[in-house]
Fold each of these.
Amino acid sequence: MATLLPRAFYARPSPVVAQECLGKILVLETKDGPLSGRIVETEAYLGIPDKAAHSYGGRRTHRNEVMYGPPGHAYVYLVYGLHDHLNLVTSAPGDPCAVLVRAVEPLSGEGRMRQRRPVVTLTALTSGPGKLCRAFGIDRGYNGHDLCCSPLFLVDGPAPARVVRTPRIGVANAGAWARRRLRFLDPESRFVSRLRTG
DNA sequence: TGAATGATTTACT
DNA sequence: GTAAATCATTCAA
């Protein structure tokens, strides 16, 4: 039963939402049909006290304005000049928290994803935050989109058998925050961006 | 108005 | 394993 996740799902602390997002389905409806994928990897960003977050220290800028708004909205931004990242705004208005979607398993529309992203292996299609955005065609035009409405939203799905927590990626300059286990992933999926070096 | 930097990916050695 | 690509946003003057 694919029920659309209500706003209440997002109106909780980031780590809770990040963990419960595993197994849920990300859906993007397009004129050519839906693209969907099962979320297998996320990261939690805790807002004001989190040195690794854009909203660290209560900074409120044009870019992260969406995180200060109500939960259940998409926060999409460009990093390194060429990669888009998809975040889910969590918590409550005024509390700039978010969950970064790092990897999904393609469920439908895989053919169109491959067209957007010429790639050699299937797992390379969506196994990374920038990769999945390119595969889905998600760009900054979706920034601020309400995830309770079409065309971009999440639906319920089975939780993974086990959940593994690891330190977050790409935030080595965040001091003690870099060591917090705020990355959640399904160890049984081969689509996680980096499970282990082994 | 100008300069520095980044929640990454890809290619090449 | 190391390095380059590439530009919107941010901070300083």
Note: The helical segments of chain A are 7-10, 14-21, 110-116, 129-136.
Amino acid sequence: MRLRKAYIPTLKEAPADAEVISHKLLVRAGFLRKLTSGVYIYLPLAWRSLNKIANIVREEMDRAGAQELHMPMVQPSDLWQESGRWDFYGKELLRFKDRHDRDCCLGPTHEEVITDLIRGEVRSYRQLPLNLYQIQTKFRDEIRPRFGLLRGREFIMKDAYSFDCDDEGADVSYRSMYDAYWRIFSRLGLRFRAVEADSGSIGGSFSHEFMVLAETGEDMIVSCTSCSFAANVERAPVVWRGESCRQQCPPVELTATPGAHSVAQVCDFLGVQPQQLIKTVIFAVDGNPVAVLVRGDREVNPVKLKNLLNAGELAIAAPEQVREWTGAPVGFAGPQGLHAVMHVYADLELRGGTDWIAGANRGDMHVLHLNLTRDATVTAFADLRVIGAADPCPLCGAEIETARGIEVGHVFKLGTKYSKALNAVILDEQGRERHIIMGCYGIGVSRVLAACIEQNNDADGIIFPPPIAPYDVALLNLDTQNADLCAKAEELYAILQTQGLDVLLDDREERPGIKFKDADLIGLPVQLVLGGRGFGRGMIEAKDRRSGEKAELPLEGFAAAFATWREHVLQGWK
RNA sequence: CGGGAUGUAGCGCAGUCUGGGAGCGCACUUGAAUGGGGUUCAAGGGGUCGGAGGUUCAAAUCCUCUCAUCCCGACCA
């Protein structure tokens, strides 16, 4: 592509609404323009990169035995009613009516459609296993879209669905996708981790997330410094080391704590440490009150609570609800007497202590010397808190470390959730009817592009990993007034293309500085600089965008010299 | 949905408090010089000041409504 003809609108300044680096650079480098909140136009450069990503995904999915198809984006409500998700999915599902007043939605995911397809066609175990996938635009009406392509409302996703007749087969399918994902993200040149994850609203029994490591990631992940354990903090179990409880504890005593409704305020007021407190958090679980107790310096993990209670909707109770249920304003709830109005769940860790300080269920009052077993009734003890950096690895007990990640892939073992809801059955070898065992597997293709840039950039712009760069080589003709130089540029342009490379030739009548800046901003892995200086000596400059390393290559025998140099650059990425 | 803010040329912004010429930088067009890291000079083109209504002799500016966008929060008591 000749830059003179290309639509690559680069900008000196980033738009004011861009916050994260990938968003700023994608806009500045001429990849992306916003249409409306969370909805973007992919310009030619972005589209080339996205296609390269998609093709790598395709190759590995095909290699894993999956078959590509393409499903509709507009879906009827009936299927969603049938699966139960029409009511359950929430406002992220964009709903509308067609001219006949029929309820429709834009597909945020395709379990319903694919299951409907399969139940109508597949009758025998002989037709399984099957794995079908598509690469398609999805729409999720996110509560707050932000960070450009990292959390858009409209985005490109690869979604795959596997169908097996038994659990063993489903496990094989799952493993095969897990391995394919590993290959995909490795080939894309990303630094990533695969972690155990919660299965969320998609449902199902087991899942892994593939996380690109980046400071701007919205997810926290933990991993063991010694063994293979790695998980999203949402899911990471906390082991209770079972320290014995101190038996001595004076009688409960009321104490005034005016205005102290946070752990920090209570600690300041009483001159105590957060570890001596019990934090009582009131949740509304499907409309009913539930209390969760954790140590004052810990955080409740709502995902664990949701799973423990097998709950649908779960939220922190509103202030009015807290007042109604506990009789006290927010900040003064405590375990005493709560069991009369709600279930009380306590984190395992609270078993290991006594003589607690807790809310008194009265405004501006706390209690001292609380002994949970003596002074309150706990429905159950369970692992309910968020893992912390000081906690040991739940598998081997070694030290753990935390990191931020961007979720770019997710594999789920769904089990029979959708095949039961939509009655997708087959006949097994014995002629018995069985529900199909399903799995689903997603990759955020457009998010991969942004995540990759979050991970690979510097002050000058993007640094593209070679596999997903929109072009392989930037060829800069520094002086378009010089006919000899232009002829040489064209010659090199042709040579590179015969080597199978995608080349972006800067043939604009611009000053060299502009060409250098734009080349760095767009971030193609290799730059070739053809200018008067080197040309006079029969040389051309090559620059590795990642390392900044430069070399002079001879124009005589250029093809071979360049191939060697480029190989050297590619090695740097390994 | 709660809180905060912003909408003025393609992009970044000033002007709004205190009403009276619609401006600056970049980008764009033309010309000249320059020619290896966003060069310089000159001359230009481009805006219903987000929209509607109101107050006023007069509104980007004041008032009301509305639309849009962004930030923070919407789990930690």
Note: Chain A has a mean pLDDT of 90.
